[in-house]
UniProtKB/TrEMBL annotation:
Its EC number is 2.5.1.-. Homotetramer. Its cofactor is pyridoxal 5'-phosphate. Keywords: Amino-acid biosynthesis, Methionine biosynthesis, Pyridoxal phosphate, Transferase. The lineage of its organism: Bacteria, Pseudomonadati, Pseudomonadota, Magnetococcia, Magnetococcales. GO terms for molecular function: transferase activity. It comes from the Bacteria. Pathway: Amino-acid biosynthesis; L-methionine biosynthesis via de novo pathway; L-homocysteine from O-succinyl-L-homoserine: step 1/1. Signal peptide: none annotated. Catalyzes the formation of L-homocysteine from O-succinyl-L-homoserine (OSHS) and hydrogen sulfide. It catalyses: O-succinyl-L-homoserine + hydrogen sulfide = L-homocysteine + succinate. The modification N6-(pyridoxal phosphate)lysine is found at residue 215. This is O-succinylhomoserine sulfhydrylase.
Length: 401
């Protein structure tokens, strides 16, 4: 369950303040912005101190694979924002997801995974987990009965993204967590699309939250990073030893970039959502796109009511189905402002054709089951002037017609 004293509740600060002020302690230099400790190891004052720190009798930095103050500050800020007791940073979002599987699953165990998860997560489930003797069942994200029916005596973990990328399908998190907890199963949520600013899964009952910090947390498309947040004891018992020994740790440089990103995350998410709402309503009003624009905030979205209940706003991804791969490609090629890239969560508006890029490695059946049609285009709406974004989309639609 959620935190054993996350910074925000502890101090009563709101999101924007928490993002800026968590970890205010300074070094003897009295710097105002937190420093970058780009050092692989740390000196000991004496052989005795080295012995005591290694023995765990004294707290202190040892070696940056598992203790670095810059990485620790990033972890502390994420934990505070998610309302978690603790967080462990990783080299990328996929490292966070892989570590979660490796930390909480053993040979003979069973995991239930949403059918609509990030492409590499599906690839890990299909290859690494099976090779390690971990049974995997994939279910439709929003189908609570399917999750329940998939449970076996060996089930240890539920893993999902909500909303899912790129279909924006959602699951009732509180209801799913009740099903899991009745059977002693942990729930891990990939919260990349929402960030803690829009959705806090631990408050809804989830045990673990994983992030690709590469996306909105950086927000400026610079570095890779990941993080796992949850209860301190659980992370220290299961995740930290694995990370310490396997070394999929976050670089201090990336941690520094990422916590500077966190400082403006609440502000950026508001603008991302403002712009995305405008884009969704604008596109949905075009007669030829009627019923073809996916956005949880649109009145015709079948799960709008759930989104209102468990998310603070509707997010910044808008998807549209242009009917065919040819038209989708022509539309992307017709964009002058929005950039074609596989990324999302950048301050610039990005466009992707999932079926031929991020989800190309899935089988046709998997793509179909995940709702990724040939005409589907994913837009990650950025922070530009809204008029410029709308004009670019309109012109690309005209050009691709
Ligand atoms: C990008 C992404 C990941 C993987 O993160 P990396 O930092 O690229 O390893 C996982 N889940 C979601 C939802 C993502 O968008």
């Amino acid at each position: 369950m959620a935190g054993d004293g996350g910074g925000m509740e502890g101090r009563g600060w709101g999101m924007a303040t928490t993002a800026l002020h968590t970890g205010r302690e300074t070094t003897p230099e009295r710097e105002n912005s937190p420093p970058l400790f780009l050092t692989s190891s740390f000196r000991f004052e004496s052989a005795e101190q080295a012995r005591a720190i290694f023995a765990g009798e004294e707290e202190g930095n040892l070696y940056s694979r598992f203790t670095n103050p810059t990485v620790a500050l990033f972890e502390e800020r994420v934990a505070a924002l998610e309302g978690a007791g603790h967080a462990v940073a990783t080299a990328s979002g996929m490292a966070a997801i892989t570590m979660t599987f490796l930390a909480y699953l053993s040979a003979g165990d069973h995991v239930v995974i949403s059918r609509s998860v990030f492409g590499s997560t599906t690839n890990i489930a299909n290859s690494l987990l099976k090779r390690m003797g971990i049974a995997v069942t994939r279910v439709a994200l929003s189908d609570l009965a399917a999750w329940e029916a998939a449970i076996t005596p060996a089930t240890r973990l539920f893993f999902l993204e909500t909303p899912a990328n790129p279909t924006l399908e959602m699951v009732d998190l509180a209801a799913l967590c009740r099903i899991a907890h009745d059977r002693g199963i942990r729930v891990a949520v990939d919260n990349v699309l929402c960030t803690p600013c829009l959705q806090r899964p631990l408050e809804l009952g989830a045990d673990l939250v994983v992030h690709s910090a590469t996306k909105y947390m950086d927000g400026q498309g610079r570095v890779l990073g990941g993080v796992i947040a949850g209860e301190r004891k659980s992370l220290m018992d299961h995740v930290y030893p694995l990370l310490r020994n396997t070394g999929s740790s976050l670089s201090p440089f990336n941690a520094w970039v990422l916590f500077k990103g966190l400082e403006t995350l609440p502000l950026r998410m508001e603008r991302h959502c403002d712009n995305a709402e405008r884009v969704a309503f604008h596109l949905a009003a075009r007669p030829e796109l009627s019923g073809r624009v996916l956005y949880p905030g649109l009145p015709d979205h079948p799960q709008r009511e759930l989104a209102v209940r468990q998310m603070r706003r509707f997010g910044a991804l808008v998807c549209l189905d242009l009917g065919s791969r040819q038209r989708a490609h022509r539309f992307l090629d017709g964009l002058r402002l929005a950039i074609i890239t596989a990324n999302l969560g950048d301050c610039r508006t990005l466009s992707t054709h999932p079926a031929t890029t991020t989800h190309a490695k899935l089988t046709d059946a998997e793509r179909q089951a995940s709702g990724i049609t040939e005409g589907l285009v994913r837009l990650s709406i950025g922070l530009e002037e809204i008029g410029d974004i709308l004009a670019d989309l309109d012109e690309a639609l005209e050009r691709s017609a």
